[in-house]
C-alpha cells in the first residue's frame, strides 16, 4: 500500500492578550479542523478504525520552541498524530489588559497546516 494525502487544510489562530504561542497554535489547528469534513474516510475508503489515518500538524508561530505540541495534538480527534512547530506567524503590537496578565502587549498569530494521510 502507498501512503497518500487525503486532505490538506489550513487554519489561523490568534492569542490577543497572553502572548501564548501554544494557545495561538491550538486555535489555528482547531480552525483548520472546523472546515474539514472527512466523510470520504468512511464513505469512499471505508475506514473502520479512525485511529488508522496519520495526521501531520505543522504550525508556524512566534516562539515555536515554547509551543506545547502535546496540547496542539489534542485538537485533532482522530488518527496517529505528529506535530512540529516552526518560526513564522506574526507578533504585533496589541493592547495590554492587566487582568489578562502582565506585560502582554503583543498579539501572537499562528498558522497551521493539517495533513491527513491514508494507506490506499
UniProtKB/TrEMBL annotation:
Keyword set, alphabetical order: GTP-binding, Nucleotide-binding
Annotated Pfam families: Lin0512_fam (PF09585)
An annotated Gene Ontology molecular function: GTP binding
Family annotation (InterPro entries): CHP02058, Tubulin/FtsZ-like_C
Designated name of the protein: Uncharacterized protein
